Amino acid sequence: MADTSSNKKHIVILGGSYGGVACVNKLLRNLSKDSNIEITLIEKCDARYHCVASYRALVQKDFAKNLWIPYTNLFPKGSPHRIHRGLVRNIYNDHVLVAPIHDGTSESSLPSSELQRINFDYLVIATGSMIPSPAKWALNSSTEGLRKLDDARDLIVQSERIVIIGGGACGVELSGEIKYAFPDKSVTLIHDMPALVDYPRFPESFKEEARRYLTNHGVEVILNQRVEVEGLSRENSVQKAERSIKLQGSDRVIQSDLQFFSIGIKVDTGFLSTLEPSPNKKALDKKTQTPFDAETLLNPKTRAVKVRPTLQLDHDAFPHIFAIGDISTADPVPTCMAAVAAGETAARNIVKLIRKEEKRAAGHHPHYVHNPQHDHQHLGDEAESVDRSDDETNGYSCRSWNKLEAYVPVQTLMVLAMNPTGGVSHLPVVGSWFGNLTAKLAKSSDLFSGRFWREMNMPRP
Ligand SMILES: Cc1cc2nc3c(=O)[nH]c(=O)nc-3n(C[C@H](O)[C@H](O)[C@H](O)COP(=O)(O)OP(=O)(O)OC[C@H]3O[C@@H](n4cnc5c(N)ncnc54)[C@H](O)[C@@H]3O)c2cc1C
Question: Which of 116, 154, 362, 377 is 20 to 30 A from 384, alpha carbon to alpha carbon?
Fold first, then answer.
């Protein structure tokens, strides 16, 4: 809880995965000498889930040890920083309410009065997204996650004709991994678009190479077919049943005994509905003069949190609240590399805001006029294009300490790891696809496991 009796600053990060941990690490590097800073990471799971490696762990049991990384060494021993295990239920202007988690489950019906209150001066929302399992699991315990993964692997072993519905990056990787690990099983990927991985800014040659790679490795790829399988959905995304899947516009029927639903990314931003400007701020929208409505902070289609280039929420009343990674609108294509970059940008901006407050307290005034009615207004009113010149000891350069950094969406390096030996990759600089070697070097062999275990200061198992 924030220490209101002193001038300690409490930074709270929600979600301890790619974005959240990158933010924590950057803050630690910038603020290690500050005794008046406390960081709390709130996370519902007992270990960090490295979802990028999930499909390899699905087909290769001994790889599963890479998936959940303990938080034990994230913060230095004896530091005031801590991990708080809990499910964030509500966000307010200066605190969050968190449901405790016991034995991997949280009491969903717990009344607000029994939730834990954690105050903050700065907040970073990094609670990510849900992608149908076995990519991500709607659970709070690594033990349960490993058990579910074992169950799904057993289903693959018991099946002969496997159908995957959805040919985005996840469906493509899932089909490739299954076919490589179980070459004797038939694997069919059905996609409703004319091309696989049909994301903005990726060249046709890359999409075509993904299709060619899978086909060459024995996966049947069926495009332009929208099929519905009874009972198969985002929530029930792995189903073991005998199914005859009829293709539209032809007499063909695909027989299958195991189906995966691999469509769509979803964010849960319900916890923002309680957010309101602090009473000493005007709660009226400047343009329309209507009362504040938290709904305006969300993209109406995706429900992602709208952020400014500085990654602060897109409203003047919340310059002390940031959103990063999949939960935010910061990147057109949500990726873990984007979440990491955004986490680091948010951390640098928070450091700048803290330094600015310190300077102000010490009587040094920046050149803009401060409006005392808006006590946080001064925190985010200027962004510069990109200035990453902050040094790691004091967090700002003298030239730019009163300007926040504008986040630049990362150049999308897309690597489709289809098996341990290769896949297809798209390098933005060169603008085209590359095959096995690039994919293997960049991702396929260990799926970034070494990097993210190191980031958590943990020896690789
Ligand atoms: C199979 C697969 C392969 C991928 N491959 C790549 C790749 O090669 N390159 C790439 O860049 N990206 C890849 N991605 C995408 C990447 O994994 C996501 O973009 C990334 O996970 C986003 O990170 P994040 O930190 O925003 O959120 P997440 O990884 O979703 O993490 C959110 C964290 O918040 C916690 N949380 C959520 N809600 C709450 C709550 N209410 N209270 C407390 N804690 C909460 C969760 O437990 C989790 O730890 C891949 C994804 C998958 C599934």
Answer: 362
Q: pTM value? A: 0.91
Atom of ligand 1 nearest to the CA of 325: 26
Q: b/e for 43-70, b at 16 or more Cβ within 10 A?
A: bbbbbbbbbbbbbbbbbbeebbebbbbe
Domains by residue range for the chain, with CATH: 9-129+267-405 (3.50.50.60), 142-265+411-455 (3.50.50.60)
pLDDT for res 397: 37
Instruction: Measure the CA–CA gap between 349 and 26, rounded to whole angstroms.
Output: 11
> In which element (H, E) is residue 172 found?
helix 169-181
Q: Could you say which DSSP state residue 90 is in? A: E
Tens-place pLDDT, residues 356-382: 988 888 886 654 433 333 344 445 444
Q: How far is the CA of 132 from the centre of ligand 1 (A)?
A: 12
- Distance, CA of 71 to CA of 285 (rounded, Å): 41
Q: What is the dihedral of CA 374, 379, 380, 383, to 10 degrees?
A: 140
Quote the Cα angle for 79-82-85, to 5°. Answer: 165
Q: Can you spell out the DSSP letters for 422-452?
A: EEEEEETTTTEEE-HHHHIIIIITTTTHHHH
DSSP state of 126: -
pLDDT tens per residue across span 48-79: 999 999 999 999 999 999 999 999 999 999 99
Reply yes or no on whether the pLDDT at 85 is more than 90. Answer: yes
Rg (CA), the chain: 23
Ligand 1 lined by 131 (C-beta under 6 Å): yes
Cα distance between the two ends of the chain: 34
Residue 222 parent element (H or E):
strand 220-222
Q: How far is the CA of 49 from the centre of ligand 1 (A)?
A: 8
Average pLDDT over the chain reads: 87
Across the range 157-186, mean pLDDT stands at 97
In 3D, which of 111, 127, 132, 65 has the Cα closest to residue 458?
Answer: 65
Contacts of 362 (CB under 8 A, 6+ apart): none
Ligand 1 centre distance from Cα of residue 287 (Å): 35
Residue 23 pLDDT > 80, yes or no?
yes
Helical pair 336-361 and 18-31, crossing angle rounded to 10 deg: 30
For the Cβ of 188 lying below 6 angstroms from any atom of ligand 1, the answer is no
H helices of 118-158, where? 142-158
3-class DSSP assignment, residue 175: helix
CA distance 392 to 189: 47
The single residue listed with the structure tokens 């609670």 is: 127
